[in-house]
Design brief:
Elements lengths: L1 H20 L10 E15 L6 E5 L2 E9 H6 L6 E6 L1 H6 L8 E7 L1 E3 L5 E6 L2 E7 L3 E2 L5 E3 L5 E3 L1 H26 L2
Parallel strand pairs: 1-4
Antiparallel strand pairs: 1-3, 2-8, 3-7, 4-6, 5-8, 9-10, 10-11
Length: 182
Amino acid sequence: MKMFALVLALVVWSAVRLQITKGTPTWSSRMVTTATFAQVPINIMQLPSDTNSYELIPISATVSISGSRLNVNATKPEMITLFVMVTPEEAEEAPLTQNTNKGVINKKIQAKIPADVTLGAIEPSTVRLITKKAPKANALSGSAVSPDNTTTSSVEHVQSESAGNLSSSQEREEKAEAENTP
């Protein structure tokens, strides 16, 4: 009988202990570890109203993170977002390269990572952001003037002139036919 009571006590004790520690990470999963992700793409964050186009050099970076083994192992490359933010004002102030309408800005790479890990490093930490400035519309003529002072006609202006010329030539042909008919 004493033996049965001892076995029953051990079973109850084990069940209670298991219930208390259930969901609590073990010591080995709380150890700090690191991981490195190569070739993580870098995104450009710009305002919807920004009409400039941009190019990054390089287009990806290497990211290292640290945290508990459980959290680091659960982190996938798709869960890491690298980005640079740019405003139209920054693009406007960027010094132009010689004989082009392109500017160059050095930007620090920022990261969004899961909350349960810590960002170690981003290599490289900065990128060259090449901005191709959008042409500015000339209010008087409907043409666009780019930063290098070349002028291009707006597509709508050319299309409306073509449509006007087409309808007036059709009208002339119809008048000529009407005059030539007895």
